[in-house]
Amino acid sequence: MANAAADWDLFQSLHAVLQAGSFSGAARARGLTQPTLGRHIEALEQKLGGALFLRSPRGLQPTELALALAPHLDEMAATVGAALRDATGPADGSAGCVRLTASEVLAVEVLPPILKDFMDVHPDVEVELVVSNELEDLMRREADIAIRMARPTQSALVARRIGAIHFGFYATPGYVQRKGLPTDLDDLADGHTLIGFDRIDPKSIIDTIDIGRPINRDLFTFKTDNQLAQLAAVRAGLGVGATTHGLARREGLVQILPNAFSFQLEVWICMHESLKASRRMRLMSDHLAERLKAFVAENQP
C-alpha cells in the first residue's frame, strides 16, 4: 500500500508537468520545490524504463511514453478531484464544493453576479469555475455542473433546457459614425471591418449560418479565436462583430443589418445523474436555471 501511495505521488508530479509544461510551473502547482519534483520524474522514469521528457530549443517536450500516459492521468485526476469535492460535505447538506464549467463569455459577462447572489445565501458552498469553451467531460466528473450551448448527448446526464439566446451583428455608435451603416451583407463583408475567428472549429455552429457566402477566416479583417477578445474589439469600436442582443443593449451598441443576419444558441444546464441526491448540487442547478432564464429573456431580438 505504501508503494502504491508513493507511485501515485510520482504520477501526480508527472500530470502536473504535463499540465504546466515546465518543472517550475508543476512544482508551484504541487507546492513542491523544483528539485523534489525533478526527483519524482527521475524516479518514475526508472520505474517505467524510459524517458518522459526531452529538452529542446522549444522547451520541455513530452515523449511518446508521457503522451500515452496523459489521458489516464487526466482521468485519475478528475476522479480524485470529484472524490474530494464529494467529501467536502454530506449529500443532504448545502455545505461543500460545486465545480462549474461555462464558456468564456458566460463565465466573465454573465455568471459573476449570479454566483455572488448564490454564495451570499449559501456561504458554506465553495465554487470552482472552469472557464472553457471546450465541453468538459461530466461523465468523468471533470466538472459537476456544466452550462452548455448545445444539447447534451450523453444519456447518463440530467439536462435542463433553459431556452435560446439570440445573436446579431453589432458595432459602437462611434464606428457607425465613422464608417456608416452597410446596405447589405456584401457591403458589410467588403466595406467594413468584420471581427471573427482565426481558426474555425469544424464542430462550431458556423456551418448552420447562412450569409450568402462561405464563412472562413478570409471573411474577417480582425481575427481572434478568443470570444472575450472579439467582444472587447467590438466594444472598442474596432469593427462589427456578433454578440447577444442583451449584452449589446447593455453596452449601447448599434445593431447592423437586423433583418439580414441572426442566429441563436440553446442554453442547457447539465450534471451527472449520480449528483441528483446532492442538495448543494440541486440548489446550484435550480439557482442557475432561474437566473439564466432571465438572461435568456433579456437576449431576445
Automatic annotation (TrEMBL):
Q: Does the keyword Metal-binding apply?
A: no
Annotated HTH lysR-type domain ranges read: 7-63
Q: Which protein family is it in?
A: Belongs to the LysR transcriptional regulatory family.
For this protein, the record's SUPFAM superfamilies field holds: Periplasmic binding protein-like II (SSF53850), Winged helix' DNA-binding domain (SSF46785)
Write the record's keywords in alphabetical order, separated by commas.
Answer: DNA-binding, Transcription, Transcription regulation
- Gene3D superfamilies the UniProt entry points to: 3.40.190.290, Winged helix-like DNA-binding domain superfamily/Winged helix DNA-binding domain (1.10.10.10)
What InterPro entries does the database record attribute to this sequence?
LysR-type_TF_proteobact-type, LysR_HTH_N, LysR_subst-bd, WH-like_DNA-bd_sf, WH_DNA-bd_sf
Identification of the protein by name: LysR family transcriptional regulator
Q: Which residues form a coiled coil?
A: none
Domain of life of the source? Bacteria
